[in-house]
């Protein structure tokens, strides 16, 4: 009798906890995204944000036409702004260094939206994908930094190698990473470019030039990321995933200049299933945002 009474008491005590336990997701759930660690373990947005807030630089590698990545960038910027309390800086690949004065004027309200969009060469998907970030920055009084090299210089390098930059006026060199720029053709991203263009980066001059143009972008973004943050600040940088996947590209140049800098990365990938991280996406970044491969694109 005492044993039966003890069982009943235990069940009655557990009932409130059972009643409030979260229900398991239905078998037919269709999640819009999943987050994983580098090792493929599921992770919540909150735990990821807490880890990222302890970094000095976060490289958010997006697919430029993915709406989920753009939405999550906005959520992460809002969360980190709260966690860092006035110490968050927003960096964007999408604006080039020669329009930085316009970015700053718009950010503090000295330039109207129409003039800014006419003069700052925003990307075609600016309205849907990046304007929300700039509006958040204005509301939260976050500094915004355009980090990319002016496209015309990358085009010159793609045609004639990095030596094409030597003749630039000093004023224009200020929009680039300091010259000369070191290029490591063994980085996974650059090896992938070599394969994509059907050449061996160690011997094909044309492929070398294309990789050098990519390296110019990576080095320039890394340079202005470092230049734009002060001690104690966190710089959240939004860039194409190919600029930071496998911790190379921008990350490689950051480590080259400042080995002790605490850098964490996010990569955006698409998969047919979201239950686990596909093998080829393991260790691609510190955190991996997985989006269904049939997700609607912004262009």
From TrEMBL:
| Keywords carried by this UniProt record | Signal
One Pfam family, short name: Cofac_haem_bdg
Please report the stretch or stretches of sequence annotated as the Haem-binding uptake Tiki superfamily ChaN domain: 48-254
Renumbered to this chain, the signal peptide range is 1-19
Q: Does the keyword Signal apply?
A: yes
Entry protein name: Iron-regulated protein
Q: What is the lineage of its organism?
A: Bacteria, Pseudomonadati, Bacteroidota, Cytophagia, Cytophagales
